């Protein structure tokens, strides 16, 4: 992975963290692509020659290569993929009625016709698996229209409309793949009643007989909330709207998650354009990702809001930073440049008060700002110190203003470790060590190893972050790539790693890492991980026999759907890629 990330810079030094959006380039009208402008000036400098600054009327040397629109056959293929994926979403929505993470008091059982799905759980599970398979295959076929080397690509608008069609059927369904949303509801009610969610669990604060407590997974009923104060305060404001109506509460929480999805759809293509990556490619990998659709939309996870605020803050924070090339002098501050940087810091801080990993974006943003000047150590200090001060002020204001204080920091550090995920490397090391201890007659020391391995994971994450911060500061990596790798390390090394946690790394990397190797790895992970968690959000203890039947039926349905797709548009299953034009000559740009 290290080599692939280095290659993604494509030049000797990373360069695009300071490129303004296309519609903010000097002398470029809104809606005009820089490639439509006059030819680029000679900015060669890769052999040590002096490189001059780009004139104000020059096109951007770092924008993505211009591509042509899809032809008629490709447009038809895109339409088939879009509809095929929508069918998958509809299947998943129907299956969720009998195979979703339904509330304990399930309102579907009172609905004529629809309650049939509850009585045929194996069939419902097969329908849900069919929908998942169809959606994942649709996403893989959609990649044909988002290949960065293709002569013709789908537009950002076409990709966004595709995501909208796939998401729409999942907005009003029961939660899928996890019961976390019921914890959100219970903890929000605790805040609404004026109690401290960082000291009391739902069972202690609301009582075990409360309908909101009933939906919470047993392990979380007596644990404090591991979420930030802003999220819980927002939930506290929404709590009286939904009251004890679980369905209304779930829909309100999904609305918060959808705000994050919209921010991701807005920010990712803009960041990609800034970093020389095709916006369609970034949207395909970041926003149309099955992990996002299944877990941020259907699962209503609050990571969506935190990631959305993080990438939106990055986009706004670097929006006014100038384009610079090696050998020039830093231009004077542009109008509103400091304001946008400060606004970006505020938005990222707000994201961190939803889920704390978003705070990792701030040091990498300070590196981007330092590189906007001379890239010296004192520039990093001058950039980082005001950001740290502003972060502290905004964080304190939110913690005090919400009335929840700073107890969330300790709860965030301790509560998630109660769960050992079967896909977590650190959790598996602890489990294997326990088995080895029993085998050797030394006893089961798994519980003792978990906090040690958790601490070791935090130390490794800190080391990776510092390494990539310094490497980014020394121009060896783009800072946003360093951010993605650091977030990836932070998530993978968690004891309670969940499939959607990897979106913390995939989404920022989708906007900047342009190599095929990264996309292949991210594609395989994103296509495989959704099937590791069942739609029910629980286990199949005592009835695991239903899984082979459900998987088998789903495979037949999915293969039948593929046959129909091939009949409608053979292009989609063809391995012949579109012709690719010659790539743009590299330019040695430093920021």
Notes on the structure:
It is a multi-pass membrane protein. The chain crosses the membrane at residues 84-105, 125-146, 158-177, 246-268, 280-300, 338-368, 380-409, 448-470, 477-495, 501-533, 545-566. It is found in: Membrane. The model is unreliable at 1-61 and 578-591 (pLDDT under 50). The chain starts with a helix and ends in a 23-residue tail after the last helix. The protein has helices at residues 2-7, 72-99, 116-119, 121-142, 156-167, 180-192, 202-206, 211-214, 229-242, 246-274, 279-286, 290-298, 303-317, 337-352, 361-372, 377-401, 407-414, 425-439, 446-473, 479-492, 503-510, 516-528, 546-568. It contains 23 helices and no strands. It is an all-alpha fold.
Can you lay out the helices and strands and say which pair or pack?
Layout: H1 2-7, H2 72-99, H3 116-119, H4 121-142, H5 156-167, H6 180-192, H7 202-206, H8 211-214, H9 229-242, H10 246-274, H11 279-286, H12 290-298, H13 303-317, H14 337-352, H15 361-372, H16 377-401, H17 407-414, H18 425-439, H19 446-473, H20 479-492, H21 503-510, H22 516-528, H23 546-568
Helix pairs in contact: 2-4, 2-5, 4-23, 6-9, 6-10, 9-10, 10-11, 10-12, 10-13, 11-21, 13-14, 14-15, 14-16, 15-16, 15-20, 18-19, 19-20, 20-21
GO molecular function, one term: glycosyltransferase activity
Region (Disordered): 1-70
Organism: Amycolatopsis echigonensis
């Amino acid at each position: 992975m290290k080599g692939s990330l280095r290659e993604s810079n494509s030049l000797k030094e990373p360069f695009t963290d300071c490129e303004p959006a296309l519609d903010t380039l000097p002398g470029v009208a809104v809606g005009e692509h820089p490639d439509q402008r006059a030819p680029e000036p000679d900015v060669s400098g890769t052999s040590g020659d002096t490189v001059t600054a780009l004139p104000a009327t020059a096109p951007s040397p770092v924008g993505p290569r211009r591509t042509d629109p899809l032809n008629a056959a490709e447009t038809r293929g895109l339409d088939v993929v879009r509809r095929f994926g929508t069918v998958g979403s509809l299947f998943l929505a129907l299956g969720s009625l009998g195979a979703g993470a339904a509330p304990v008091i399930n309102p579907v059982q009172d609905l004529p016709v629809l309650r049939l799905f509850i009585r045929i759980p194996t069939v419902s599970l097969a329908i849900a698996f069919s929908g998942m398979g169809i959606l994942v295959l649709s996403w893989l076929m959609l990649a044909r229209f988002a290949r960065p080397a293709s002569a013709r690509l789908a537009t950002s608008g076409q990709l966004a409309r595709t995501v909208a069609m796939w998401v729409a059927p999942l907005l009003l369904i029961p939660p899928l793949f996890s019961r976390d949303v019921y914890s959100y509801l219970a903890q929000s009610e605790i805040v609404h009643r004026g109690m401290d969610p960082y000291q009391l669990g739902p069972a202690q604060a609301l009582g075990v007989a409360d309908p909101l407590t009933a939906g919470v997974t047993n392990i979380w009923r007596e644990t404090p909330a591991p979420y930030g104060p802003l999220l819980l305060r927002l939930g506290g404001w929404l709590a009286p709207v939904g009251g004890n109506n679980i369905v209304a509460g779930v829909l309100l929480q999904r609305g918060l998650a959808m705000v994050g999805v919209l921010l991701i759809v807005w920010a990712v293509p803009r960041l990609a354009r800034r970093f020389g990556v095709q916006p369609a490619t970034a949207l395909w990998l970041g926003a149309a990702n099955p992990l996002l659709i299944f877990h941020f939309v259907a699962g209503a996870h609050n990571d969506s809001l935190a990631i959305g605020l993080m990438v939106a803050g990055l986009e706004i924070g670097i929006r006014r930073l100038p384009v610079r090339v090696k050998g020039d002098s830093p231009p004077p501050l542009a109008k509103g440049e400091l304001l946008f940087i400060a606004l970006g810091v505020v938005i990222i801080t707000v994201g961190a008060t939803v889920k704390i990993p978003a705070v990792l974006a701030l040091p990498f943003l300070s590196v981007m700002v330092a590189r906007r000047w001379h890239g010296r150590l004192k520039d990093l200090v001058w950039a980082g110190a005001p950001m740290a001060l502003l972060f502290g002020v905004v964080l304190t204001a939110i913690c005090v203003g919400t009335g929840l204080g700073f107890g969330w920091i300790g709860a965030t550090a301790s509560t998630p470790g109660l769960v050992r995920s079967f896909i977590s490397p650190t959790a598996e090391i602890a489990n294997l060590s326990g088995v080895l201890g029993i085998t050797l007659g030394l006893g089961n020391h798994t519980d003792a190893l978990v906090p040690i391995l958790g601490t070791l994971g935090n130390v490794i994450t800190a080391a990776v972050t510092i390494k990539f911060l310094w490497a980014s500061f020394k121009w060896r990596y783009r800072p946003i790539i360093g951010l993605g790798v650091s977030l990836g390390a932070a998530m993978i090394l968690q004891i309670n790693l969940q499939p959607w946690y990897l979106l913390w790394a995939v989404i920022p990397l989708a906007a900047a890492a342009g190599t095929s190797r990264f996309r292949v790895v991210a594609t395989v992970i994103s296509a495989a991980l959704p099937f590791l968690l069942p739609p029910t959000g629980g286990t199949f203890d005592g009835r695991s026999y239903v899984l082979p039947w459900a998987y088998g039926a789903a495979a037949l349905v999915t293969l039948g759907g593929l046959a129909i797709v091939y009949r409608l548009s053979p292009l989609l299953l063809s391995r012949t890629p579109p012709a690719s034009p010659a790539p743009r000559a590299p330019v040695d740009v430093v920021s």
